[in-house]
Structure to design on (717 residues):
């Protein structure tokens, strides 16, 4: 940190990052202050909604986490290594680019009571889902794309793929190869990814409102309802519930860690038994269906959207917030990587690993204190806390892969640091930069809680509108909002992919 | 006997036909980039879908080109040793032994194989601490302990330095002749061809 502060830009970027990450600080004491009040816990535990909400949260989070991991592992076992694995990677954005709320809306409109599926198949009747199983399954499908995407980034192609061939020439199956070679290589990264999935599934509010059980809802929705009400006792209950969510996250992480340690012995099974498992039909099918589900979601929304489903105000709000937060975060990240970063800075990933609720509560506290709540600037600032780490996740590996010899050569040519940054590093990274921007854009589009709280309800975006309409209202308008949400996000990814392809066409060395 | 029948591997080879008898080592010669490794990838069952292949592969009267990698019983040795770095040397070799060898016999066989290769005492070693020549020897032992019905050698000597190459080569040829299985070796180096072994030029199929 000391070294980075020698440069004026180092100061600037540290201040920018501090402003964005400031809510982490009030979030901690705010969470802890009611933790020791016995009355608060009594009020929380005696709430009649709690037991079922607790079960629904556990069930939906477990299905989402275990399901996404299972789907991803089946696909990896079937397709990695090889061309089909690479092809899946190019098609995964079809599902990745679909915002959660749009995906959930299409599931709601098809499979909920009175949905398109039951109109088509009148003999089928919807199951009563009090425990959030539909929510869990939807999240499992959506998150599996994210898990696969992350695994693609960390699974080394060359050596490990050849070792896999060697293992298979010894007679072992793909599944045995997956557990002995691929999983140990990706375990640390996969652990972090699954932690993010658990944290997200535990604390998701927008998708849970759309798809989750209604009364009582999941814990996260309950906490949000209590926290957004003025009553002091309910505030305390909401804060305590946030604490419970954090404890649940720790519990899930601990269980996952124990299972991994128990089951993964450092010594492989050397009895020489070759399991023959046959052709990997399930994994191959899932690998084909996952990208397709993104297309199906879009198709369903197009079919269901009414003609007058377009309203300019939420469209404009969503678009401008996403555009500006993406651009600001991009500038901050690039400056941070060049002048600010020192060491690993693990705290930068906290917004991805922690439940969103307490962080938004921290943001709201600061916004009230500085009297900026309800302003456009506050909402933009609120989005940045999630936009920035997600974009960093995309950009940082590419930045570190830059060949240091190129920088050395540029220096021997007499270039200054700022010139190297601007003329060498940034242009070399054009493709990751484009993709990071699209990611940031979509993350901002998907923000629900910060938009609602910091904007004091004044800034209706496509996401907040879709969530509001999902509890009753015109199917056509709901589908229309979700469709525009999807279209904007997909357009951002499409434009990024187009420019990236253009850059790759003229300069094939740019990766 | 290993037979490649009427293989067309677009866009590299046409009408590839050759057979290798038990105990024979056939050398395929060709410059780098001539598709040697691609041919091996097809034979072992790991061909990239960038290529389309038509043709038959027979091993001891069993058609193999329709089987997945793990059922072909064809062993392979790459340029790199490709030891599984998170297992010990002994575990790498135990993994290769067939399951019908059980209990103490497993460890004994592995220890015996290591001693025959001049690697006695390396059972518990971390593969990363081995020299290049030692790694190469472990890698061949691993391929042989699986009792393959045929063996493919993809320039296995090219990464070793000159002094080591001669002794390692002789040791490899000695080991595989004792197994009495068909062996195919690809190389671009004349020195690698075993004495009075058959040599096929890849260019005749291009």
């Amino acid at each position: 940190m000391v070294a980075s502060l020698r440069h004026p830009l180092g100061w600037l970027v540290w201040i920018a990052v501090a402003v964005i990450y400031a809510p982490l600080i009030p979030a901690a004491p705010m969470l802890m202050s009611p933790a020791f009040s016995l009355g608060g816990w009594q009020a929380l535990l005696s709430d009649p909604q709690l037991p079922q909400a607790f079960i629904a949260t556990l069930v939906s989070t477990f299905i989402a986490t275990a399901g996404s991991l299972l789907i991803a592992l089946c696909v990896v076992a079937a397709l990695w290594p090889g061309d089909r694995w690479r092809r899946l990677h190019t098609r995964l954005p079809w599902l990745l680019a679909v915002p959660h709320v749009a995906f959930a809306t299409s599931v709601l409109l098809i499979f909920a009571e009175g949905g398109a599926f039951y109109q088509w198949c009148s003999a089928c009747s919807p199951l009563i889902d009090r425990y959030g199983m539909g929510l869990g399954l939807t999240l499992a499908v959506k998150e599996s794309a994210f898990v696969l995407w992350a695994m693609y980034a960390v699974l080394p192609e060359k050596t490990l793929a050849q070792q896999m061939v060697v293992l298979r020439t010894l007679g072992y199956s793909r599944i045995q190869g997956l557990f002995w070679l691929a999983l140990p290589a990706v375990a640390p990264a996969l652990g972090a990814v699954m932690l993010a999935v658990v944290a997200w599934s535990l604390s998701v509010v927008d998708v849970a409102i759309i798809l989750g059980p209604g009364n009582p809802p999941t814990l996260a929705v309950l906490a949000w309802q209590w926290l957004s009400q003025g009553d002091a006792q309910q505030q305390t209950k909401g804060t305590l519930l946030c604490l419970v969510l954090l404890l649940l996250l720790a519990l899930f992480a601990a269980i996952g860690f124990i299972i991994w340690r128990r089951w993964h012995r450092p010594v492989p099974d050397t009895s020489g038994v070759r399991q023959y498992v046959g052709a990997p039909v399930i994994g191959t099918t899932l690998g084909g269906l996952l990208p397709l589900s993104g297309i199906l979601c879009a198709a369903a929304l197009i079919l269901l959207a009414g003609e007058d489903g377009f309203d300019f105000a939420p469209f404009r709000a969503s678009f401008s917030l996403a555009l500006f937060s993406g651009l600001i975060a991009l500038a901050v990240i690039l400056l941070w990587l060049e002048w600010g970063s020192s060491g690993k800075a693990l705290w930068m990933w906290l917004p991805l690993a922690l439940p969103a609720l307490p962080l938004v509560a921290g943001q709201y506290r600061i916004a009230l204190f500085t009297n900026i709540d309800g302003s456009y600037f506050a909402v933009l600032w609120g989005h940045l806390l999630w936009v920035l780490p997600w974009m960093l996740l995309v950009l940082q590996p590419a930045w570190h892969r830059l060949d240091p010899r190129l920088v050395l050569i540029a220096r021997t040519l007499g270039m200054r640091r700022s010139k190297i940054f601007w003329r060498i590093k940034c242009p070399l990274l054009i493709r990751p930069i484009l993709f990071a921007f699209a990611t940031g854009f979509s993350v901002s589009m998907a923000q629900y809680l910060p938009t609602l709280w910091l904007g004091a309800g004044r800034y209706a975006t496509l996401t907040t509108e879709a969530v509001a309409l999902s509890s009753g209202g015109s199917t056509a308008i709901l589908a229309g909002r979700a469709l525009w949400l999807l279209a904007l996000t997909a357009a951002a990814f499409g434009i990024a992919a187009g420019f990236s392809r253009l850059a790759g066409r003229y300069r094939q060395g740019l990766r | 006997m290993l037979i490649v029948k009427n293989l067309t591997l677009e866009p590299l080879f046409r009408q590839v036909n050759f057979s290798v008898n038990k105990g024979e080592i056939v050398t395929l010669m060709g410059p780098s980039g001539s598709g040697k490794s691609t041919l091996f990838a097809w034979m072992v069952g790991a061909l990239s879908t960038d290529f389309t292949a038509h043709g038959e592969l027979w091993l001891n009267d069993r058609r193999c080109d329709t089987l997945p990698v793990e059922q072909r019983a064809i062993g392979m040795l790459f340029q790199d040793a490709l030891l599984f770095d998170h297992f010990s040397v002994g575990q790498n070799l135990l993994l290769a032994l067939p399951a019908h060898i059980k209990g103490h016999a497993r460890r004994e066989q592995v220890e015996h194989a290591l001693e025959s290769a001049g690697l006695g005492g390396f059972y518990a070693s971390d593969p990363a601490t081995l020299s290049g020549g030692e790694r190469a020897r472990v890698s061949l032992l691993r391929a042989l302990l699986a009792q393959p019905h045929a063996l493919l050698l993809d320039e296995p000597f090219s990464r070793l330095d000159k002094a080591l190459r001669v002794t390692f080569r002789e040791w490899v040829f000695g080991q595989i002749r004792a197994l009495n299985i068909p062996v195919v070796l690809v190389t671009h180096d004349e020195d690698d061809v075993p004495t009075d072994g058959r040599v096929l030029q890849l260019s005749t199929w291009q």
About this structure: Chain B has five helices and nine strands. The CA atoms of residues 10 and 52 of chain B lie 5 Å apart. The mean pLDDT of chain B is 88. The interface with chain A takes residues 44-46, 48-50, 68-76, 78, 80, 82, 84, 86-87, 91, 94-102, 106, 142-143, 146, 148 of chain B (CB under 8 Å).
